[in-house]
Amino acid sequence: MESKTIILIFLLIVSLTIVTISVRVPLLPIIEDNHENPSNNDPLLLFDTSNYGKLQLNNGLAKTPQMGWNSWNFFACNINETVIKETADALLSTGLAKLGYTYVNIDDCWSASKRNSKGGLVPDPKTFPSGIKALADYIHEKGLKLGIYSDAGVFTCQVRPGSLYYENGDAELFASWGVDYLKYDNCYNLGIKPVKRYPPMREALSATGRMIFYSLSEWGVDDPALWAGKVGNSWRTTDDINDTWASMTTIADLNDKWASYAGPGGWNDPDMLEVGNGGMTYQEYRAHFSIWALMKAPLLIGCDVRNMTAETMEILGNEEVIAVNQDPLGIQGRKVFLEGADNCSQVWAGPLSGNRLVVAFWNRCQQAVIITAKWETLGLHPATSVSVRDLWEHEDVLGNVNGTFGVEVDSHDCKLYVFTPTSTLHVRM
């Protein structure tokens, strides 16, 4: 009888111990994705990292998305060495360089219309009379980096010489000039598949011994996210952007599909920023910048930084939004909730380091709406409490929010917040 009592007491103690054991539950579960119907996502199936870092080119570059400036969106072919130098100066004088915008990238039209007698590329003597080496030296003296442009075809898109079949010589030339970045386009490609045309330049760049960021401008035609991570540091997932609301929103949706393939070393590229070029409103540009930052897209300024408005500088210079883009966790945020006419009320979100979450409330409707995110929509455990910081107003909004968070958003605007956990969650087993 006594032994039975002892056994019963022992079993009781064990059972009580098991009942009171608590385990930490991740506030932001990161498992896999269900893009087919984001409004009905299982909260534990939001932020797919199944391809995270699996393919990335390990050349020591692109630990975070590239930041800088590119000449095409504003200047197109109307470039010269003076414009490039003055842009570098403006990046410094405005403080943008200190915020991370360090690549000064020359796009198409820098070269002469023909190669020289030895088969080498030649800078256009009218617009770049000092040569690219002298320009690179000027850029480097400013503490910045120089990017250049070529094409994985026989011609560039503006019918200058391309680098197809000239990869080794061109890569050596770029390295000798001190180039730090190559944007490699997709025109006049002879119908050869991109998966065959882009690796030779990667190998040629690597053989130079110089660390050169390799940006594939393949336009998403052959789903480069599926293969380009072994080839370049970023890859275009879409056609060219233009300075319109329709173009920007369409491209954001297309890029969202490939979220699981981005990560340190290689990034999805929905094309360069149009902020400040005049085709969209302040609210639309703010949405553009917010979503590009959340998507871990390259932040390549496309306006004339020598003549920016205060509103343009306010957007491009927002340190808190830039920090979202440059967060070391490096997980691309994505669309997690849609409602309203044509799904125009949207919530986009993504994990950040420190167990935080960035959340964008994006109004693509024609009128102001209230957008609400429920915790299950965001993949948060229902008992989690968070503090909420507004990244555009630069202020803490609420201290202990639980269950849902909603906000009114003007038409075509975007509110951007960081949620930081304020409670340690334990679950009884």
TrEMBL record:
Gene Ontology biological-process annotations: carbohydrate metabolic process
Keyword set includes Nucleotide-binding: no
Residue ranges annotated for the Alpha galactosidase C-terminal domain, each copy included: 343-418
Recorded catalytic activity of this chain's protein: Hydrolysis of terminal, non-reducing alpha-D-galactose residues in alpha-D-galactosides, including galactose oligosaccharides, galactomannans and galactolipids
Pfam families, A to Z: Melibiase_2, Melibiase_C
GO molecular function list: alpha-galactosidase activity
Documented EC number(s): 3.2.1.22
Keywords: Disulfide bond, Glycosidase, Hydrolase, Signal
EC class: hydrolase
Family recorded in the similarity comment: Belongs to the glycosyl hydrolase 27 family.
Protein name: Alpha-galactosidase
Organism: Aquilegia coerulea
Organism classification: Eukaryota, Viridiplantae, Streptophyta, Embryophyta, Tracheophyta
